Amino acid sequence: MELSSILMIVGIIVIILSLFLKDKSVQVEKDVEDLSINIYQETNALKRRIKLLEEELLVEPNFQVKQPETNQTDAFTSFQKVADQMKTAQHNSTQSGLKSEKNNKPINGILVSQVLALNNQGLSIDEISKLSTLSHAQIQSILANGGKQ
Fold first, then answer.
1. What pLDDT, on a 0 to 100 scale, did the predictor assign at position 99?
2. Which residue ranges run through the membrane (predicted)?
3. Is residue 83 within 8 Å of residue 131, measured between CB atoms?
């Protein structure tokens, strides 16, 4: 037998086998179609739910979104009170001639915690200085040491 006749026989056998084997592309097309139908149905269901929620919101005229209650404003006002007290105390000490001794004394623990809390709230050193009546160097020292003296 010649090579050409062998190749022709092999080709005919492959063609006959391909007729009996299932075509996998048909199954893939069916799967894609089922998937697209499922996505369409889910999208429609979500649209209906959203429409119902919108209608409920329109029916309730007094509906308001409540903002979460935070204690930051309360903490800030309490820090302002402490700062005011410290300002009056500092003013009294400067009037009595204790200003030179104050620079050598360690910073009060309340002031240290106030500076750290105000820094955690995102206030700048200038703002902290105004609220706590400490100098920029003292505030930077507190922040650098993490409140440790």
1. 40
2. 6-21
3. yes
- Identity of residue 90: Q
3-state secondary structure 45-78: HHHHHHHHHHHHHHHCCCCCCCCCCCCHHHHHHH
- Phi, psi of 81, deg, nearest 5: -65, -45
Amino acid letter, residue 31: D
User: Cα dist. 7→1, 19, 20, 29 in Å?
Assistant: 10, 19, 20, 34
CA dist 18 and 63 (Å) reads: 67
pTM for the whole structure:
0.31
Measured between its terminal Cα atoms, the distance across the chain in Å is 102
